C-alpha cells in the first residue's frame, strides 16, 4: 500500500473534509463524494483477493440485544451499503450467527439482498468480497457439518461462492477434538470451491501458528486472521498476534477498531449508550481522557471531523484492515473519512503513548486463545 507524506495529502484531506461537511448539510439520503478515497494500488491483498484498506462490519445488521436492530432500519442499511460501495469499499464482514433469535443469519440475508439490488457502476458488484464467519457451535462436530454451514450461508446470501470463509472461534481450550474437525471442514469447503480464501477469528499467536501449519500441509493457504485490534486494546498480546501474522504472511483484520464506540468521542459518563454496553463504558471511560484528548488534537490538526477517523486510521497505518461497524449513513460518512491519508510516525507514537496511560483496556473475547 502506498504511503502518503503529510505534505502530499493535505490538499486531498481538505477536499475530503469539505465533501463530508457538505453532505451533512444536505439530504443525508443522497450523499455524494466526488474524489476516490483511495487508489487501486492501495488495495490490500488477502490471498487471491484485492480488498479496500478498510471494510465494514455488519454485526449490528440483525442484532437486537446489543445494537437495537429493527427491520425498519433495512432501507437505511441498504443506503449504507450503496454509499460504501460507491466509495470503493468492497469488503464486508458478517457471520452466520449475526442476528438475534429468529433473526439469526439476518446480516447475511441483508448483504446478499443488497448485493443483488445494487445499481451502481457495471462490474463493481462482481468485486465485492464477503467475509463470513462460521460459528463453532457444539453440534458442529464433523467436517461435513461445517461444510453444510458454509452451504447454508451461501443459500442465505444467494451467492455461488464466498470470498473469505472464516472459523469464528477456536475450540482448542474446551473441545480440541472438535477443533480438528472444524479445520478439516475449512479444508473441505476450500477444496470444493465454496470459498475463495480461508481465515480464522479470535486466534492467539500459538494457535494461529498451529492452524497455519496444519492448513499449509493440506495445501490450503491461511489468508486472514481477525482479532480485536484497537488503541483501546493495545498491549503485548495484541502485537504478538500482529507479529505472527506478519511473519506468516497472514493479513490481520481488525474488528472493534473503535472499542464498541468508546473511541468515537460521542460518549461520556453522563451520556452512555443503551443496553449492555453501558456497564462496560462506565468502567473504562473514566481512564480514557488522555487518549481521547490525543485523538481530538490530531483530528483538529488533520482537519478531520471526528476522532474516530484517527482511531481507524491508526489501525490502517499499523498494517491491518479495520472493519468498523456501521448502521447509519452518518456513521458511514464519518468512517470513510479515515481513508485517503496516513498518520505520521510521530502521531502514531503519540497515540500509543496516550493509549498506554489508560488504566483499563477492552475486555478480550471469551473465545480468544493463546
Automatic annotation (TrEMBL):
Residues 53-353 form the NADP-dependent oxidoreductase domain. The keyword NADP applies. Keywords: NADP, Oxidoreductase. SUPFAM superfamilies: NAD(P)-linked oxidoreductase. It holds the Pfam family Aldo_ket_red. One of its GO terms (molecular function) is oxidoreductase activity. GO terms for cellular component: cytoplasm. The keyword Oxidoreductase applies. This is NADP-dependent oxidoreductase domain-containing protein.
Amino acid at each position: 500500500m502506498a504511503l502518503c507524506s503529510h505534505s502530499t495529502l493535505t490538499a486531498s484531506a481538505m477536499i475530503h473534509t469539505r465533501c463530508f461537511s457538505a453532505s451533512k448539510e444536505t439530504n443525508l439520503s443522497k450523499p455524494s463524494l466526488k474524489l476516490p478515497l483511495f487508489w487501486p494500488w492501495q488495495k490490500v491483498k488477502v490471498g487471491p483477493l484485492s480488498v479496500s484498506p478498510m471494510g465494514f462490519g455488519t454485526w449490528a445488521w440483525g442484532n437486537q440485544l446489543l445494537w437495537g436492530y429493527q427491520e425498519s432500519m433495512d432501507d437505511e442499511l441498504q443506503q449504507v451499503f450503496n454509499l460504501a460501495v460507491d466509495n470503493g469499499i468492497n469488503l464486508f464482514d458478517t457471520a452466520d450467527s449475526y442476528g438475534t433469535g429468529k433473526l439469526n443469519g439476518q446480516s447475511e440475508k441483508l448483504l446478499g439482498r443488497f448485493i443483488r439490488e445494487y445499481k451502481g457502476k457495471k462490474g463493481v458488484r462482481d468485486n465485492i468480497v464477503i467475509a463470513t464467519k462460521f460459528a463453532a457451535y457444539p453440534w458442529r462436530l464433523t467436517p461435513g457439518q461445517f461444510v453444510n454451514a458454509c452451504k447454508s450461508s451461501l443459500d442465505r446470501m444467494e451467492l455461488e461462492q464466498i470470498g473469505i470463509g472464516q472459523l469464528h472461534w477456536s475450540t482448542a481450550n474446551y473441545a480440541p477434538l472438535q477443533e480438528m474437525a472444524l479445520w478439516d471442514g475449512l479444508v473441505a469447503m476450500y477444496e470444493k470451491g465454496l470459498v475463495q480464501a480461508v481465515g480464522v477469528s479470535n486466534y492467539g499467536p500459538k494457535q494461529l501458528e498451529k492452524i497455519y501449519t496444519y492448513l499449509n500441509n493440506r495445501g490450503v493457504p491461511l489468508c486472514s486472521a481477525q482479532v480485536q485490534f484497537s488503541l483501546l486494546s493495545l498491549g503485548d498480546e495484541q502485537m504478538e498476534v500482529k507479529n505472527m501474522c506478519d511473519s506468516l504472511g497472514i493479513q490481520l483484520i481488525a474488528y472493534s477498531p473503535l472499542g464498541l464506540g468508546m473511541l468515537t468521542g460521542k460518549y461520556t459518563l453522563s451520556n452512555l449508550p443503551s443496553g449492555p454496553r453501558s456497564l462496560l463504558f462506565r468502567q473504562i471511560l473514566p481512564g480514557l481522557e488522555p487518549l481521547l484528548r490525543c485523538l481530538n488534537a490530531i483530528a483538529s490538526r488533520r482537519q478531520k471531523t471526528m476522532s474516530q477517523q484517527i482511531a481507524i486510521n491508526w489501525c490502517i497505518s499499523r498494517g491491518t484492515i479495520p472493519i468498523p461497524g456501521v448502521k447509519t449513513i452518518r456513521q458511514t460518512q464519518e468512517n470513510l473519512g479515515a481513508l485517503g491519508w496516513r498518520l505520521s510516525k510521530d502521531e502514531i507514537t503519540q497515540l500509543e503513548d496516550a493509549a498506554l496511560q489508560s488504566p483499563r483496556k477492552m475486555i478480550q473475547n471469551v473465545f480468544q486463545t493463546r
